[in-house]
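Customer escalation, tier 2.

The customer says the design service returned an amino acid string that "doesn't look like it belongs to this structure." They asked us to rerun it and document both sides in this ticket. The original structure tokens are below, unchanged.
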């Protein structure tokens, strides 16, 4: 499975300042409209922290094969579904 989303790093000590700088860079690189949409995303769409996202993936039965964290909080996860022991036993008997 491939997942690409905005994920905030829990290790970042100056996260509010980094988010502000990221939004300013979007306005500089793209335009004010896109920066405004990104600000709304941060405020209203509840992007999550890395430890929460990674916990959700693992508790949902995935192994995280790789995680790439971009400078603008864009994060890409490549995951593999882990077969449950009960599923494997069911397949062997059938």
């Amino acid at each position: 499975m491939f997942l690409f989303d905005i994920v905030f790093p829990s290790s970042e000590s100056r996260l509010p300042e980094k988010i502000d700088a990221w939004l300013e860079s979007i306005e500089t690189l793209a335009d004010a409209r896109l920066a405004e949409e990104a600000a709304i995303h941060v405020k209203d769409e509840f992007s999550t922290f890395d430890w929460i996202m990674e916990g959700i993936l693992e508790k949902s039965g995935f192994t995280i094969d790789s995680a790439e964290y971009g400078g603008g909080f864009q994060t890409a996860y490549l995951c593999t579904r882990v077969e449950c022991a009960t599923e494997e036993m069911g397949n062997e008997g059938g």
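Tier 2 assessment: The sequence is consistent with the input. The chain has a mean pLDDT of 86. The radius of gyration is 18 Å. Sent an explanation to the customer and offered a walkthrough call.
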